[in-house]
Write a structure and sequence with these properties.
This protein has about 240 residues and is of the alpha+beta class. The protein is built from seven helices and five strands. About 40% of the residues lie in helices and about 25% in strands. Strand 1 and strand 2 (about 180-195) form a beta hairpin.
Length: about 240
């Protein structure tokens, strides 16, 4: 009986090894249908305003930031070239943000800020609360939501169209505790008109392009893995 047991044991072990090798050969193969690794910085089609869309204001990928730090040494005058003057309070603030978050890149941030600015203005005009909730801090969202609610009660409708965003510049940068905060001044051209429920124009002009200046502050928790910046303050610029 001991010999029979040993024979069956050997047979089952051999069968188990055979099945394992077959499974390994199948699971290890690529079918050609796998999704490529996610790269948030790769070129893509323009984002469409979707209800669950979140605009990421990107930093550099961590690996790219590490390699850049290892291979490139920049002087203070070069580090924020085109963004802030060397030795200025703004440059010092950007240094503080970069120290708190090594993936931070001012130019990448401005690219995302421009996209967020356009999407937020459009979502507000359309009363798209779901998109706004993803892009705004709780306090700012409550203000936007209140204004949309009042507009809906009156039956007013806003029609808004971007002509261009002519300029976006960082005017202030600082770190408060775990929060990095960047203030951006936007200069844009916009066609905007508000109509009452009778369809009459009560504000703006559907045929006129208006120059608009906005000063917005974005913030991000640098201790969080969430890469998204949210709008935390707004004001009309001069």
């Amino acid at each position: 009986m001991q010999d029979v047991f040993d024979i069956y044991t050997i047979i089952f072990l051999a069968l188990a090894v055979f099945i394992f090798l077959r499974l390994r050969s199948v699971l290890g193969q690529r079918t050609g249908r796998e999704r490529p690794p996610y790269d948030p910085y790769a070129a893509r089609e323009p984002a469409r305003p979707a209800a669950d869309n979140v605009v990421q204001i990107p930093n550099r990928p961590a690996e790219a930031a590490r390699k850049a730090d290892e291979t490139t040494e920049t002087t203070p005058a070069e580090r924020w070239k085109g963004v802030a003057e060397a030795g200025s309070p703004l440059a010092a603030g950007l240094d503080a943000v970069a120290a708190a978050d090594r993936t931070f890149d001012a130019n990448h941030f401005l690219t995302g800020a421009r996209a967020a600015y356009e999407m937020i203005v459009t979502a507000y005009a359309e009363g798209d609360r779901r998109s706004l909730r993803n892009l705004l801090s709780r306090e700012v969202y409550e203000g936007f939501d209140g204004a949309i609610t009042e507009r809906e009660k009156r039956g007013d409708v806003v029609e808004s169209r971007f002509v261009s965003i002519d300029k976006a510049t960082i005017t202030n940068a600082e770190v408060r505790g775990r929060s990095a905060q960047l203030t951006v001044r936007f200069l844009s051209k916009l066609v905007s008109v508000t109509r009452n429920k009778a369809g009459e124009v009560i504000d703006g002009n559907a045929e006129s392009v208006t120059d608009v200046t906005d000063v917005w502050t974005f913030a991000r928790d640098v201790s969080s893995r969430d890469p998204n910046w949210k709008l935390v303050a707004t004001e009309a610029g001069q």
